[in-house]
Amino acid sequence: MYVVKIGGSLLTNKDGYCAPNREMVRQYASLIAKEWDRLSGNLILIVGGGSYGNAVPIRYNLKDASLPWREQDLSMMTVKMFEWLSLVTEIFREEGVPCYPFQTSGYVITDDKHPLRYFIEPVQHVLETNVLPVFSGDLVFDLSRKFTIFSSDNIPELFVERMRLTRVVMMTDVEGVMRFDQDGHERTLIPTVTKENFREVLLCTGPSRKQDITGGMKNKLEALLRLAERGVEGVITSGSDPEALLPALFDERPAGTFIRPWVNNMRRQKADVDCVFGM
Ligand SMILES: Nc1ncnc2c1ncn2[C@@H]1O[C@H](COP(=O)(O)OP(=O)(O)OP(=O)(O)O)[C@@H](O)[C@H]1O
Ligand SMILES: C=C(C)CCOP(=O)(O)O
Prior knowledge:
By secondary structure, the protein is α/β, with parallel strands linked by helices. The chain has a single domain (2-272), classed as Acetylglutamate kinase-like (Carbamate kinase). The chain is built from ten helices and 14 strands. An eight-stranded mixed sheet has the order 3-6-2-1-9-13-14-12, sandwiched between helices. A four-stranded mixed sheet has the order 5-4-7-8. A hairpin with a 2-residue loop joins strand 4 and strand 5 (114-118). The radius of gyration is 18 Å and the shape is globular. The two termini are 21 Å apart. Mean pLDDT is 93; it is low at 269-275. The protein binds adenosine-5'-triphosphate (ATP) and Isopentenyl phosphate. Adenosine-5'-triphosphate binds next to helix 1 and helix 9. This is Isopentenyl phosphate kinase. Pfam families: AA_kinase. It catalyses: isopentenyl phosphate + ATP = isopentenyl diphosphate + ADP. Keywords: ATP-binding, Isoprene biosynthesis, Kinase, Nucleotide-binding, Transferase.
């Protein structure tokens, strides 16, 4: 099973308000349509929040339940997110990819931002039907915080216990995880993240330079590190050319930053997991 997250920085104008880049969505849809025989039943798609997921909570004070939000606005994150998921589903359908959108607050409950209970069985049915499951972040209900904003970067971890994930690819608006020189001008790509260097690489990551409330590159890398210690390969790479998707999914050493797992997925059992990062 492969999971690809296409960043909101690619599929929307991230500094706007609910401003989709329909042409980019269509290009990804058409590429996946061409490869559908190979991908159907093996691929889960996640779309980033972009100017939906990161702008709506600011407009309606829903970034955090401690803010003065209004009850009549509680629905707005989910309504707008599902508008975005529906648009993606519609474009994929027009291009010949059968999709099914999942609304995240309907199947996940968190406690202090961490997923506590979630129901993945319907996703397995969608995959068995050779339909592409499509996910996004959302406002989700939280036992200790009332609600929280759940990033699309954290969706892949919901599948790891139930499915044998091979690789999770995150396509975004930079080449991968970059290291900046001291005056912040020169930057070089970090090609590989391992059990040995992940602490140092994490120090290079930070928030997004665009409108973003979920932690930018840092949250992305942390999510992929937790997956690495469950035996899942991770890739962070540029998706400004949608043609980069297939090599990112299938090449042994894809462009961008490769996060090499430090347990063997094939033999992985709970007790085997060598957790040095966070699970
Ligand atoms: N070390 C780093 N290397 C590369 N980018 C970094 C680094 N640290 C922070 N960033 C920022 O992280 C951004 C990518 O994260 P961001 O969450 O904005 O992307 P996305 O996943 O495409 O969007 P969305 O979260 O809306 O889906 C980059 O554009 C950059 O501004
Ligand atoms: C999508 C929501 C609700 C939050 C933001 O999501 P992300 O930009 O995909 O991390």
